[in-house]
Amino acid sequence: MINAKLTEPSKIRHKGEFYNHSPAVDVRSSVGDDVWNQYFTFSMERHPYEKVISHVFYHARNKENWDFEKELKRVFKKGYYISYPIYSDGEDPIVDFIVNYERLQEDLSVLSDKLGFDVSAHYPQTKHTHRPGRKPARDLLSDEHKDLIYERCKIEFETLGFER
Questions:
Q1: For the chain, what is the domain count?
Q2: Contact 24, 44 (CB under 8 A)
Q3: In 10 A of CB 156, how many CB atoms?
Q4: What is the pLDDT of residue 139?
Q5: Cβ burial 28-50 (10 Å sphere, 16+ → b, else e)
Q6: Hey, how many other C-beta atoms are within 10 angstroms of the C-beta on 59?
Q7: Host H or E run for residue 42
Q8: pLDDT (0 to 100) of residue 3
């Protein structure tokens, strides 16, 4: 179930101030429907298992001798990996296009065609040094963890057709 607090417009720090991961409902609320509807809006989504593992390694990046299970519990508790509320109204996506990170090059090509410039030429490589070895998330998670992620992100799995 989506947390209603995450899908209602929040109090933007200062009117018109946006930040990394600003919820689309906040942006739409701030700019108004007329402006919102004039623009092509998009977001990016990543497989929920990969998001969980990415957050684990990112939050442990400066720690020595950290415990995977402890960091995983922290990520589960915080819910960092639940991002459907960022690009939806809680029930349906409100952006025009969702880039599926698992099909990154293909979707960036679609986005490039839509925007009229090569998006991939401007796509930064960030935060890619925190996860050594790049072992697939499904290999790092137990079945119990996968079930929990699926239950919390079921709408993301269904919307983007992610494999369970």
A1: 1
A2: no
A3: 24
A4: 94
A5: bbbeeeeebeeeeebbbbbbbbb
A6: 16
A7: strand 42-45
A8: 37
Tracing tokens 């919390």 back to the chain, one arrives at 152
pLDDT of the residue at 12: 45
DSSP secondary structure, 82-149, as one string: --HHHHBSSSSB-SSEEEEGGGHHHHHHHHHHHHTS-GGGG----STTSSGGG--HHHHS-HHHHHHH
Q: Quote the Cα angle for 122-127-132, to 5°.
A: 130
Q: Which residue has the tokens 């689309």?
A: 24
For 72, phi and psi rounded to 5 degrees?
-65, -45
Q: Which candidate, 115, 90, 102, places its Cα nearest to that of 9?
A: 90
| pLDDT averaged per 10 residues in sequence order, the chain, 164 residues | 41 63 92 94 95 92 91 93 94 96 92 91 61 80 97 95 94
Report the distance separating Cα 24 and Cα 87, nearest Å: 5
Domain range holding 98? 4-160
Residue 45: phi and psi, rounded to 5, are: -130, 145
